[in-house]
Amino acid sequence: MRLFETDENQIEIIEGMTVEYPYCLHERNLTDFVIPWHWHEELELGYIQEGISKIVTVGAEYIVHQGDGFFINSNVMNVKQNGLPGGKTVEINHIFHPVFLSGHFKSRFETKYLSPVINDRQIEVHILRKGHTISDQILHNLYRLKELQRNPNAEFQTRNILSDTWLLLVNELRENPGERVPAGTEQKDRLRSMITYIHRHYAEKITLSEIAEVSGISEREASRCFRKNLGHSPVEYLIGYRLGESKKLLQKSDLTVAEISQQCGFSDSAYYGKAFRKAYGMTPGVYRIQSRTNHTG
User: Fold this and answer.
1) CA distance from start to end of the chain
2) 162 and 27 belong to one structural domain
3) pTM
4) 74 within 8 A of 43, measured Cβ to Cβ
5) What pLDDT is recorded for position 107?
6) Which of the pair, 10 or 276, is modelled with greater confidence?
7) Does residue 170 sit in the same domain as residue 195?
8) Where are the beta strands (DSSP E) in the chain?
9) Residue 70 sits in the same domain as residue 96
10) In the prediction, which pLDDT does 85 show?
11) 147 and 13 share a domain?
């Protein structure tokens, strides 16, 4: 499984992405893995190889079934997770920077074909449903791209197929616009600032006042902003993020449960165990054993 990392601003550090070749293929097993709130300049065109995934943005949710595809626009805040509790879900994702197709800043390729989509903030996520003519053509190209990556000399072909796919996507968005999300830029910027602060400082003692302060709003407004857009309070989000980070340490490290709870911002290991059981239906110790067994098996 590809690792998921973000920088200090919660912009995803995309494994395999380089300046020399700003494209990469990721295969992610989302069965027991949630990709937390994040964003990046790169564009995403992918599909669900197995299972069902759920993509959550500020104010919207999208269910992507096996065989269906998705487009995620540049700098869109999103969460990805398994949409089939108890079942296996695998995502295949082609991630590329706009310059991979545009060639250089302000080229005709950028201004005529890429910018109109990237700059339309109402286009956040578009689902490609199999059985529709243009969507099927796009999905066929995405399957070809995946197989093509077995070839170590596939750079030109990859760019050519992605260019064709982008033209198809432009037509798809025109003919089947789907759900358009209201811009709401100010509120999204506030959320982005507060989420970034939480992700940077989750291991420390954080107060609601400190979370609200980074966006220059009151505690009440911060709580309202979280609840309206994410469905829970800032403190609930903080606890959930701490628990998610602790799962990574349970899987990968040899730290004790008490050490992990402290490292993830829980001052009381008993409270950590109770919160973990409530969230995941098992103790941290049982989760550690199961996750390592599944990984080796």
Assistant:
1) 14
2) yes
3) 0.83
4) yes
5) 96
6) 276
7) no
8) 5-6, 12-13, 23-29, 35-38, 43-50, 52-57, 60-65, 69-72, 78-82, 90-96, 125-128
9) yes
10) 83
11) yes
- Which domain covers residue 9, as residue numbers? 5-175
Residue in this structure with the two tokens 């506030």, named with its chain if needed:
190
- Give the Cβ contact number of residue 139 at 10 Å: 21
- Assign 221 a pLDDT band (cuts: 50, 70, 90): very high
- Contact yes or no for 31/52 (Cβ under 8 A): no
DSSP letter at 175?
Answer: H
Considering the domain boundaries, does residue 105 fall inside one?
Answer: yes
Same domain, 52 and 108: yes
Same domain, 53 and 141: yes
Task: State the Cα–Cα distance between residues 171 and 177, nearest whole angstrom.
Answer: 9
Are residues 127 and 62 in contact, defined by beta-carbon separation less than 8 angstroms?
yes
Structural domain ending residue among the three candidates 142, 175, 208: 175
- The pLDDT value recorded for residue 166 is 98
CA 21 to chain centre: 21
Tokens for 130, please give them.
């199999």
Strands 23-29 and 90-96: antiparallel
- Coil, strand or helix: which one is 227? helix
**108 and 246 share one domain:** no
Residue 180 inside a domain? The answer is no
Question: What pLDDT, on a 0 to 100 scale, did the predictor assign at position 11?
Answer: 57
Average pLDDT (274-288) is: 95
The pLDDT of 216-234, averaged and rounded, is 93
pLDDT in tens, 74-112: 999 999 999 988 899 999 999 999 999 999 889 999 999
Q: Record the tokens describing residue 136, joined without a space.
A: 């099927």
Confidence of residue 1 (pLDDT cuts 50, 70, 90): very low
CATH classification at residue 240: 1.10.10.60
Cβ neighbours, 10 Å, residue 131? 8
